[in-house]
Design brief:
722 residues; alpha+beta; Ubiquitin-like (UB roll); Creatine Kinase, Chain A, domain 2; Four Helix Bundle (Hemerythrin (Met), subunit A); 3 domains; nine-stranded mixed beta sheet; six-stranded mixed beta sheet; binds adenosine-5'-diphosphate; binds magnesium ion
Length: 722
């Protein structure tokens, strides 16, 4: 008889998640409990309208928030914001202050809640502010709830904020996202009114980010300067198995990893982040977490928090979390599928085909707008996801390519073709039902009809932008999606209005605009395999942009018409665009520079010494053999074989030493170029290819050298041993 094994659960997991969900956020429930009725109501109105909080109630809200936070154990607060580095930043202040008579007291004023003044000089501004006025303001985004972040032995009250300069320019990624949400709302309400849908006061955009990541043992991580410094392995030979067998995907999750996931989820639930799914991914040691979708700015905050929480929990569990897009060469990289949709405050999803002919038409109009927007601005979308890490992923036959196309699924393709060819009489609304549109969602949910290779796929009632990189902030791609959509919606609305002005009745005008939109956007629809050569050819024939690397993609921000779009929709000013371009270029160049210098360090202090030491062993063993060869009667051929072994090793090492010396020269050369673009192009065209050459030689040597002499943890150990 065996005893029942005792199962240890932490206190929180004994109670249902719903009982503690969001308990570390100043959410609806906490606000209602802590704020006077009128203040609570005023704050809710502010949030619903997407407005700034009025000064008249700020003091009371701050007091309520402080009391709540202190009861939970918080001593400090911080404005939590998204500088243009793609991550988040915080500067903590104690509630503690000392009164004039020397009495210590906890204070948190309305002013401190709604506005903070961190020293902005250490955050990138892209040249927008000179140092003497390096002051930025952070201001609360009340639509994203304040939360208590665990850290050390304490809790800190974090207030999600925008970060703006003294002159009002956005220094962060949240502000433009919020502006883009306003822009698309305005355009969509206008189009809805043209369609005869009245009473909508706000159109919202939603996002749900499927987050992929790798977990490896921390003991390996800390022995790899490349992982620590750059997030990816710059060297490392692929083991024989690789991922050919694909037996990892949806396989059972190892226990240690499951514990990590459960701890992460518990932290996320406390923070009111609706984590929903977890599973293995294609590559060994690769996993995914996905939440229930939320309004885009909240989803972006929550994704950034999720990455932070995962990093902390991984560390506690003896893991290292790898969010880089391509940590291991030859092994699938990680993305962040950004599911995106737009819907009304009255609860209508505008990308849902719906059940009635009216809803079908509304869906088609918005669908045509998406097609128009993505076709016209596919370069901007590509730009929005460009990064060092994503350059290794996009177009690597494992991830959506650098060409942006839209996948609609067979049924929808047929519907659009039928409308375009005029086979259907669009004048009778009844026909829309006959087209089977009302069945689109259920059909598309069928996995067999999914094109996993598409960078931008319709999946039933939303689009899935799959080319986003795993480490990126969702704020930027969602900002671009919203802006291109605002523009495209206006375009459709203009077309319909022009037809009405020319004397057409409303429904013919709408239907004609749909038909014309379908014809005009055929180039962006691609139902085939996006990993195939055919896509590359199609892209060329159709004139679709195919930008292979970050510097190319960033040049999009220099285009006058792109800048005009951002300016027109009030999302980014000329100066803000300029600063973003500058910061992203600089980050790219610095990032590659760090990679190259890390590689230098590894070659000189680890790899070359290891190989050289082993060569010494083989050399002396060969000398001993030569001395004994005659007495043991070793043939010349046998001696030759051993000589060749030593020769391969010696030649490899010499080659590596030469390549390392060349690498030194190239690294020093970066700074010699006059412009940022020249520097970045040099990285792409010369430095990175040289690093690939170095890697080839080093990886060959790795497979020759005695394992006990090779100090770097190998792919085999990091990815295949548990
Ligand atoms: P998969 O792509 O793996 O099949 P799901 O279909 O479950 O995954 O959805 C993935 C993500 O899409 C989830 O985060 C989900 O909440 C989100 N999602 C679902 N509906 C919408 C929507 N209307 N708008 C935005 N995101 C959505
Ligand atoms: Mg998906």
């Amino acid at each position: 008889m065996h005893k029942n094994k005792e199962v240890h659960l932490s206190s929180e997991s004994k109670v249902p998640v719903s009982a503690y969900y969001g308990s570390l956020t100043f959410d609806h429930k906490a606000m209602r409990a802590r704020l006077p009725k009128e203040v609570f109501a005023a704050l809710q109105d502010t949030i619903k309208a997407g407005k700034k909080i009025p000064e008249s109630i700020a003091g009371v809200v701050a007091h309520g928030m402080k009391e709540w936070a202190m009861e939970k154990g918080a001593t400090h607060y911080t404005h939590w914001f998204q500088p243009m580095t793609g991550s988040t930043a915080e500067k903590h202040d104690a509630f503690l202050s000392i009164d004039r008579d020397g009495t210590p007291i906890e204070r948190f004023s309305g002013e401190q809640l709604i506005q903070g003044e961190p020293d902005a000089s250490s955050f990138p501004s892209g040249g927008m502010r000179t140092t003497f006025e390096a002051r930025g303001y952070t201001a609360w985004d009340p639509s994203s709830p304040a939360f208590l972040m665990k850290g050390g032995n304490n809790l800190t009250l974090c207030i999600p904020t925008v970060f703006i300069s003294y002159h009002g320019e956005a220094l962060d990624s949240k502000t433009p996202l919020l502006r883009s949400m306003d822009a698309v709302s305005k355009s969509a309400i206008r189009l809805l009114e043209i369609l005869g849908v009245n009473g909508v006061t706000r159109v919202k955009t939603f996002a749900g980010c499927e987050q992929e990541y790798f977990l490896i043992d921390k003991k390996f991580y800390i022995q790899r300067p490349d992982l620590v410094m750059t997030g990816r392995t710059l060297l490392g030979a692929l083991p024989p198995k690789g991922q050919q067998l694909e037996d990892h995907y949806f396989g059972s999750i190892p226990d240690r990893v499951l514990e990590f996931m459960q701890d992460v989820e518990q932290e996320l639930y406390l923070l009111g982040i609706p984590a929903k799914t977890r599973h293995n991914e294609v590559a060994p040691h690769q996993f995914e977490i996905a939440p229930i979708f939320e309004e885009a700015n909240v989803a972006a905050d929550h994704n950034l928090l999720t990455m932070e929480v995962m990093r902390k929990v991984a560390d506690k569990k003896g893991f290292a979390l790898l969010l880089f897009e391509k940590p291991f060469a030859g092994i699938n990289g990680s993305g962040k599928h950004n599911n995106w949709s737009i819907g009304t405050n009255t609860g209508i999803n505008l990308l849902d085909p719906g059940d009635t002919p009216e809803e079908n038409i509304q869906f088609l109009v918005f669908l045509v707008a998406v097609l128009k927007g993505v076709l016209k601005r596919s370069d901007v979308l590509r730009m929005s996801i460009a990064s060092i890490g994503n350059d290794h992923r996009l177009g690597a036959n494992e991830a959506p390519p650098a060409v942006v196309t839209v996948f609609l699924g067979e049924l929808l393709e047929n519907v659009l073709d039928a409308i375009e060819s005029g086979k259907t009489d669009l004048k009778t609304e009844k026909q829309f039902l006959d087209l089977g549109l009302s069945q689109v969602p259920s059909l598309n949910k069928d996995y067999t009809d999914r094109n996993r290779t598409s960078p931008f796929a319709f999946t039933g009632n939303k689009f899935e932008f799959r080319a986003v990189g795993s480490s990126q902030s969702p704020s930027v791609p969602n900002m671009v999606l919203n802006t291109l959509m605002a523009e495209a919606i206006d375009d459709v609305a203009d077309a319909i209005e022009a037809k009405i002005a020319a004397g057409k009745d409303r429904s013919s005008a709408i239907l004609e605009a749909i038909r014309e939109g379908i014809t005009a956007t055929k180039a962006i629809r691609y139902p085939g395999d996006n990993y195939s050569e055919a896509l590359q050819i199609a892209a060329k024939e159709r004139g679709l942009p195919n930008m292979k690397n970050t510097p190319q993609a960033l040049r999009t921000l220099e285009k006058a018409d792109v800048r005009a779009m951002f300016v027109k929709y009030g999302v980014l000013s000329e100066e803000e665009i300029h600063s973003r371009l500058h910061i992203r270029l600089e980050r790219y160049i610095k990032g590659i520079d760090i990679e190259a210098r890390t590689l230098q360090l590894m070659l000189k202090t680890i790899v070359i010494p290891d190989v050289s030491e082993y060569q010494g062993d083989i050399g002396s063993s060969f000398n001993n053999l030569l001395a004994a060869a005659e007495s043991i009667g070793l043939s010349d051929a046998a001696i030759g074989s051993q000589a060749k072994y030593l020769k391969d090793l010696a030649e490899g090492l010499s080659e590596l030493i030469d390549l390392a010396a060349e690498l030194d020269e190239l690294v020093e050369k970066i700074e010699s170029f006059a412009t940022e673009f020249e520097k970045a192009d040099f990285c792409v065209e010369t430095l990175l290819p040289h690093m690939v050459k170095v890697r080839e030689v080093a990886d060959k040597l790795e497979l020759l050298v005695d394992r006990s002499r090779w100090q770097l943890p190998t792919y085999l150990e990091m990815l295949f041993e548990h």
